[in-house]
Amino acid sequence: MIGKYAIDEILCKWCAEAGTDHHLVYYNLKKGDELTIYHPFPGFLIGKAGVYIDKYKQELEKELNKKVKINLIEASVPMSSEEWDKYFKARGF
């Protein structure tokens, strides 16, 4: 099982390389292998031809020692009531 701080560290590096603010990223790890990432501009995290998502998916798989499924969801600002609920559930509140 990967720790929360390990995911935070990987996402901070990912955002720095993608040129976006890591404070805008929220995530939820389900069943230890399905990572859902909420961001206002998920295209930055994907990168040109998927270069960033592929690189950091491999890094997450290395940490977990198994395959990881990554879901990117666009979270608009301001959030609708449904997005607000997903945001709080993703942060563990």
Characteristic terms for this protein:
48% helix; alpha+beta; three-stranded mixed sheet; 3 strands; 4 helices; 93 residues; globular
Q: What does the model show?
A:
- This protein is of the alpha+beta class and about 90 residues long.
- The protein is built from four helices and three strands, in the order H-E-E-H-H-E-H.
- The protein has helices at about 5-20, 40-45, 50-65, 80-90; strands at about 25-30, 35-40, 70-75.
- The chain has a three-stranded mixed β-sheet.
- The longest helix is centred in the first third of the chain and has 15 residues, at about 5-20.
- The radius of gyration is 13 Å and the shape is globular.
- The relative contact order is 0.18.
- The model has no long low-confidence stretch (mean pLDDT about 85).
Summarize the structure.
By secondary structure, the chain is of the alpha+beta class. Helices cover 48% and strands 18% of the residues.
